[in-house]
Amino acid sequence: MRFAFVRVLIMSCVCTVAGLAQQTLSVDKLVEFVTSSVKQKMQDKEVAQFLTGIKVSDRLSPRTIEDLQGKGAGPKTVIALNHLAELSAALPLPVAKLPPTPPKPIPAPPYEDQYKVLGEMRSYALNYSKSLPDFLCLQVTRRYMDRHFVPGQEGSWSPVDRVAAKLTYFGQEEKYELLSSNDNSLIGKSYESVGGALSTGEFGSVLRQIFDPQSAAEFHWERWGTLRGHLSHVYTYRIDKAHSQETIDYNHQQQVTPGYHGLIFAQKGSNVILRVTVEPDIPESFPIQEVHETIDYDNTEISGQRFMLPVSAEVIMRSDRIANRNEIEFRAYRKYSADTSIKFDDVDEEPAESKQPDSKKDDLKK
Looking at residue 24, what DSSP letter applies? Predict the structure, then answer.
């Protein structure tokens, strides 16, 4: 049956060619036909035979024939095409196709609107922690390492481990309880005991610190961006060292509180914050030279109500040529109460990034 189907398909193409035999085609249509014949695996001699009866309305160039030959056009077809090229030598070249007109860039909002959006973002961020219910969730951190990392390049990451923790958000405070590392139980041990690169503060403290009046952050509207299909305001921010509350710890031996900067994505219209990035301005003398953090927020349901909560985060830290990358996923949200239980049997699920388009790539400059 498979052979019969292919044979019928080929005969259909031959009939199509027969219908084209007395027609005058543009070079574009001719290229389309020959390319289709190659894909349909039509016999070279049949294609060449019918090409002898076709006229072209514009000049067929040797370059076009070379391209068709590279796509698989047979020797007899190429001879027929060369003959058509000779006959069309006096004709005008095909009219070049104009590229599609790019959409007009969206103009920056007036300064008054920028200031208004910033005010709504500030109110949202400062009240964010208060707006959240007490809850539990599962935090899964997949950690990777590149021992020969080159700044500015993508990196060659090798998996290190997968750390699962129970995260409790109660009374606007975060608490982490270690569960496992690579399916080995670590219940009862401190979160820091797992070692390596870790991060905390994704639930509100990052937003609160950025917009806290004591941080004296400087904000600027940067551009429009698209994030997960949402048109968003993109603001830059910067906090100097004197007003910073950001702390970086190295081996529990050295700490630094640097200034930092980053981007904030706020959905146009609602002005809720969808993404925050954090890049500390680390002193050259500190053992950790670079930190890049991205936190993504999305609508998440808890007990029938929807809240903007972290769904994923990524942290990259570099010390000399050794870099660590943490891919953090938050799931299995549950409303907290004294008898709340949460199952952690989904730790082995693939991260959301492997099931959906990478949200980091949705940041399109306008």
Answer: E
